TrEMBL record:
Domain of life the protein comes from: Bacteria
Organism: Pseudomonas benzenivorans
Record Pfam families: AAA_5, CobS_N
Full protein name: AAA family ATPase
Domain AAA+ ATPase, residue spans: 60-221
Cross-referenced SUPFAM superfamilies: P-loop containing nucleoside triphosphate hydrolases
Amino acid sequence: MTDLTLESASRLVSARELFGIDSSLRVPVFTKSDQQVPEIDPAYRFNPEVTLAILAGFTRNRRVLLQGLHGTGKSTHIEQVAARLNWPCVRVNLDGHIGRLDLIGKDGIILRDGKQVTEFQEGILPWALRRPMALIFDEYDAGRPDVMFVIQRILEQGGQLNLLEQNQLIHPHPYFRLFATANTVGLGNLNGLYHGTQVLNQAQLDRWNIVASLNYLPLAEEVAIVAGRVPQLTARYGEALLESMVAVATLTRQGFACGDLSTLMSPRCVIAWAENTEIFADPALAFRLSFLNKCDEAERPLVAEYYQRCFDQELAESALPRLALA
């Protein structure tokens, strides 16, 4: 890994210049690159409020928790901010297989000079704390209790990690940053969408300095995102097709909010639908394969009605004649 020193991050750049948001905040940008820096997605669209929250995390070393429904681009939002700051970034999914030893480290057997010796191997936290690194905990509300209590100590400002196994006290690097994403805000699986999520300890939740919410974008902005992801489809059929697709997704979200549906279309699902439409040249078939088959059978007639409203066409009918391949 490149040795990113304090001097290499001394260049301050206006947030307005980098992200086009109305703010006088000046953010540090590393002048040296690193293999852990995410790639820039030029088509990514930033939410101004969430971007400011994330920038506060990078600039002022605030602990930022980003909450929102699935597919809104929470982790990607943090990564794309990091990409433009040239800031190394690592994501860790707190699934049920991540345990305390994965975070802290454990003794392992290695070969040295042809002999097997026991040596302590650092876990994720000591490795990240020693570096100028943005560490993102994905699915934060799905973490096991023993894992969450390990994280709690480093949530405090300037939080240090005491490695009892090695009798070491690790001071975080001045440019270490901590972020997390969650589908819930620590209340557990209330709506039935997110099995496996836990009710978070309120003492730990209180240690997050900033909690931002990322919701689904307005129709025009979501259409622009899908158009940027699948430019070939837009070039061939225009944005009218994408507007109808996003309109269907919006109706599913409204239906979910009213309790009529038990699932909804995320922007990620809309992008998959657009990509599949490009493959099959048939939005109806692509819709069935991308979303409808995921729905409860009792709810499929309502979803088909949403499709009919937006496309003025029964879902059972093929769209191949209208979208014939060139």
